[in-house]
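Sequence in, structure out. Go.
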Amino acid sequence: MEIEQTRYSRLAHITKLINTNFELRPLLEHVITAISEEVVRCDSVGIYLPQEDGSFRGYVGKPAIINGMTLDMHVVDTEYDLLAKEVIETQQTIYIADTSKDNRPDPRAVAGFGIKSLLALPISYEGELFGLVFLFDYGIPMDLTADEIQTVEAYVNMAGVAIRNVKNLQRKESILAEKQLLLDLTRDLSMTSSMTDVMEKCFHYVGKVLKNDNIGVHLLDPIVDAKMKPTNLSTKSEWVEEDWLDKHEQLQFDPSNDRVFDAVIASKKPLCIRDVTKDDRVNQEVCKTFGITGMLMLPFVSMGEVLGALVLVSFEEDNKVFCESDIELAQSITEATASTLSNLLYMDKQELLIEQRTSEVVSKNNELNTVVSELENLSREKELILNSVEEGIFGFDLENKITFCNRAAASILGYQKEELIGQSYKNLLPKNQDLILATISLEEDLKFLKKDGNPFSVEYVVSSIKENEQLIGEVVTFRDITKRKQLEKEVSHLAYYDHLTDLPNRILLEDYLKQQTEKAIGSGQKVAVLYLDLDRFKIINDSFGHSYGDMLLKNVANRLRRSVPKKAFVSRQGGDEFTIVLPDYDNNQEVLNLVNKLVESFTEPFSLKGNEVYVKTSIGISVFPEHGNTAEVLIKNADAAMYKSKEKSGTYHHFFNNDMSDWSMESIYLENALNKALENEELSLHFQPQINCKTNRILGAEALLRWNHPTRGMVSPIEFIPVAEETGLIVPIGRWVLLNACKQLKTWHAQGHTQMTVSVNLSGRQFEEDDLIPMIESILVETDIAPEFLHIELTENQIFKNTHVTLEKMREIKALGIKIALDDFGTGYSSLGYLKNFPIDTLKIDRSFMLDILTDKDNAAITSTIITLAQNLNLNVIAEGVETVEQLDFLIAKNCFNIQGYYYSKPLPAEELAKYIDQLVPNI
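Output:
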C-alpha cells in the first residue's frame, strides 16, 4: 500500500509539473528519476528524441555518462537496431528478458555495454510518436514484472504528455510569430509609395518564410487587362532584373497564354511543381533558359480578382520540399500585398491614361500649330483651307480687333463672319479673363462667350503673326469642348460618387481624408473618422425586398446629411456601411456631440412606402493622429472599432484602441455574424442522450449548441465558441442556451420523462459575470425546473483560470441544488487535489481516451484510473465518445455504466430525441 501511495504521489507530482512548467528537459529528468526509483534493478534508463535524419539521440537519462560517453553521444539507428524499429512501427512496449536469445537489439550496444535484459518503450500521445525510452542492465537481468512494466508505461505516458504540451506551446508561438510577421508586413506596406517598394517588401517576407530569394513577379498590364507580363525581380535573386526581363522578351514569353499561370489564375490558389521536367504544363524552354528545376507560384488576389502571380524558383537538382504551413503563410503575404498592389495598379493605369491623353493633346496641338503657321500669310487659296478645318480660327491685330475668321469660328460663336470682323476679341471673353499666349490648358476651365452671352468651355492655342520679323497680330485656333467637359464631369461623378445615395464613395473619401490629415499636421487640429453600420438591415432587405433596402439606404444618407455639421464629410463605404469625417476639431467632446446627434437621428422610424421600420447603428471611431496617420489605417481602425460596438445591444459607439489591431478578419467576421445570429434565429440546440447501459434507461441529455449560418451553412463550435468567449458574446448566447435547454427539459417532463436531466456547458467567461447566479435562478423560476434536474458542466482549464472566483460561484451553484460535472477530465491540468476541494458531482471521461482504448495501453490505463478514482471519491462517472460495442464492454468490465456517444445516438434535435427515448426498452 505504501508503494502504491508513493507511486500515485510521483504521478501527481509529475502531472503538476507538466501543467505548470513548459521546460522540457527538467520535466523529462523528473520522469527518468521516477522510473529509476521505481525499477531499482535497472542500471540505466534514457530518453531518446527523434532527429531529422530518422535516428534517435539521447536527451536525458541516468546515469548521464556511460562508458565515458555522455548520453547525447548515444544514437539509435533503426537500420542496426531492429528492436527500436519495431517499437517505432508498432508503438508497443517490448521487453527482452534475455538479449542472448533475441537478435533484435543493436548487437554493438549489447556487446559494448554488456546488456543482459532490455525494456524499450515508445513515447507517444494520441498516436503521435515523440521519442523512445530504454531501460537495461549491465550484468544482472532486471527480471521485470508486468506491474513494473505497466508502471513504467504510465511514467512514459507522462513524458508523452509533457512533450505534447511543449510542442503545442511551440506551435502557439509559431502562430504568434506568423501573425507578427503579417502585422510587420502590413505596417511596411502602409509606408510604401511605389510598385518597386511594395514588391521588395513582399519579396523580403516571402523569401524569409520560404528561405529562397529567387523570386519574380508577373502582373496584369495596366492598359490591357487581359495581358500579363513580367515586371519585378527580387534584388537578392541570382539573376539581375534587367537580364531577366531581356530574356523574357527574347523568348517572347507571354504568361497570359501559359498553362501553369492559367491554372493558378483559374484556381486562385498556390501551385507547387517540385520537378518541372515531370509536368507537361510547364514551358520547358523558359525553364531551360533560366536553369529552373522547380517552382512555387502564388497568386495575388484582391477583391476576388487575380492581379498577377509571384513565382519562386529553384536552380538546384535536389529541390527543397516546402511544408504546407509555410506555403499558406507565403500566400497570406501575397494576399496582404495584393490590396496595396491593387491601388498602385489602379494609379498606374490612371497615369498611363493621362499620359496617353496628354500625348494626344500635344499631337493635336502640334497639328494646330502647323495649321497656324501655314495661315500666317493668308491668301484667297489658304482661306479655303481655313474653312475646311473643324476648329474655329480667328486673327486680331495689335489693336485687338478681329481681322479674319473662318466659318467654324463664326458658327461656334453664334455670329455671322461679317459680325465678328472689326470688333475686339475681348468681347468673346468673360470679364477678368484674357488670352493665354501659346498655351492649351488642360487643367483650367477656360471659357469663350457666344453672341448671346452664354459662356462655353474651349481649348485654344494662340500664335503670333509676323511680317518681316515684326509682330503684326495674333491668330487663335480653338474648339468647343463643352460636350467633352460634360462627359468628363459625368465620368468623374460615376468614379467618385455612389450611384444609389449620391454620396461620395470610398475613393473620394480616401482622397478627402488624405487632404484633411495633411492640413491637420500644419494646424495641430484633429480629424475623426466615424464608421457606421446599420443593424437589422439584412432582415429588412430580405423581408421587404431589395427595392425597400435601397430606399432605406437613400433615407439614411439624407438623414446623415441633415445630422452632421457643414464641415463634416459623409460617404458610403458600400452595403449598409457609411463613413463620416469630422475635420478641424481639437476636443473629443465635439465628436461625442456628433455621435449623440447621429444616435438621436436614428430614434425616429424610417418610412418605406407606408411601412415604418426602426433601424439602429453601431459606430466605430478613429482619431488622427492617435489611431493612424494614413487614410487607409484610419478607416480600417474605425471599422474595427465599429465591430467592437456591435458587442452592445442597441445603438452604441466605440473609440478604437490598439488591442483591436490584433483581431483577425475572420474573428471580426464571426463576431459580426454572431451578433445577428440570435436575432435571426440561426442558433439551435441538439441533445445527446446519456444512457445507463446496465438498465438501458436514459439518465439525461447534454445540450449542444449549433449555428446554421445563412451563407456558410453549419459553422463548427470549434470556430465560433472561442470568438464568442473572447468578445463576450458567450454571455447572451450562454443565457439563451441555458434558457432553451431548461424549457426543453420542462417539455420532456410534461411528456412523462420525469427523471430526465439536462446538462449545459458554462464557459469561463460566464463565471466572470456578477449576475451569473441570479441569471441561473431566474431561469429556474421562469421554466419551473427543480434544480436537481439541471447539471452544469465546466472543464478543468476553466477552474484554474480564476480559481478563487470560480470556486466561490461553484459553491453558490451547488447551494441551489444544481449538480456540477467536470467535462473532458484527464485532458487538462489533471491535478488530483482539486477533486476533493471543489464541489464536483460527476467526472466525464474525455472522448479522446475512447478512440483506441482497446489498442493503446496508455489510454486504457488512464481510463481505468479515472473510473477507480471517481468510485473511491464517491463521484459519478460518464464516458463520452463511446462508439463501439468493444469500447462499451471495456467500460462495463471496469464498472462504468453511464455512457454518452454515437454507440447509442448522435446529438439530435429535441423532437427526434423524444422519439428515441420512447423507443428505448429498459432491461428488467
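Check: The domain at 683-917 is CATH 3.20.20.450 (TIM Barrel). The first helix runs from residue 2 to 20.
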